[in-house]
Amino acid sequence: MRFAVIDLGTNTFHLLIAESFGGTFEILYKTNVPVKLGEGRINDNLIIPAAFNRGIITLQDFSLSIKEFNVDQVKATATSAVRSAKNGAEFVSEAKAIADIEIETISGDEEAELIYKGVKLSGAIQDLSLIMDIGGGSIEFILCNTQQLIWKKSYNIGAARLMQQFFKSDPINDGEKHAILNHVQNQLVDLFEICEKHQPTKLIGSAGAFETFAELIIRKNNQEVDICKVKTYAFNYDEYIATTLKLINSTHQERAEMPGMIPLRIDMIVIAALITNYVMGRLKLNQLSLSTYDLKMGVLASLL
User: Fold this and answer.
1) Helices (H) and strands (E) in the chain, counts
2) What are the strands, taking DSSP E only, across the chain?
3) How many alpha carbons fall within 13 Å on the CB side of residue 210?
4) 161 CB neighbour count, 10 Å cutoff
5) What CA–CA distances, in Å, run from 227 to 89, 223, 293?
6) Are 20 and 40 in contact (CB under 8 A)?
7) DSSP annotation of 14
8) 45 phi and psi, to 5 degrees?
9) Could you report the per-residue pLDDT of 46-80, keeping only the tens digit for each?
10) Are the C-beta atoms of residues 7 and 81 closer than 8 Å to each other?
11) What is the C-alpha separation between 194 and 39, in angstroms, rounded?
12) What pTM was computed for the model?
């Protein structure tokens, strides 16, 4: 069987094509496109026309790849940007009519569940851990151990939302930092309560921004690691902190010139760094690892 998984994120659309043999699978093709569906007016719950068109054109391209690979089953999931947009249903029907791709808009709870399945598949969960997935529209937190998912929740505090609401200066100023962290603190009250009770020992970052953090460190240290080919990566805590502080204090141009930075994340990485550092500080965590397996691998795991 050949499966195609499409993850329509707020920032990026992903396509993954895999073939299954018995209980295992091989990835035949994967690509991602920075569609920026949440551009401009995500906090007004609207997909602007330019982003809407980029999304449909990208899905038409994905549809061609799916036909080329003779895929048997397609699963496309849409998350925060489509879920919250007034014209989200219109986007879903246009995708079906123009690109012949049927999209399922999933809830934040379902999103967290699939992220957990993807991260579990990577082997990153080795003890009581908190998984964090920073999207453009939402952030998911999943408390789990090797046996089970203990607690999960999706929060509407994604990097694109916070960036459009608070991040106006270059480099980000103290007032904006405090406004972001104050907002995050008010949103995450129940996360801190559940973690106080269970005491996770490690934070696992699910793909996205955490891949960029890893890439920046790998390039700086000239390490022989290809993030595209590994399932997990363990951060040195001091190196991670030094890297994120540099990101937070640098200008847009300085970040753009950092080896390993991708254009989509030049500004959003500041938000990701601020929130991750705040959560780790608040929960007294000094162990951090990356799982390159995320929601789309969770969807694949469910299909298999």
Assistant:
1) 12, 11
2) 2-8, 13-21, 24-33, 73-78, 103-105, 129-134, 139-144, 149-155, 202-206, 232-234, 288-291
3) 27
4) 25
5) 35, 11, 11
6) no
7) E
8) 55, 50
9) 999 999 999 999 999 999 999 999 999 999 999 99
10) no
11) 33
12) 0.96
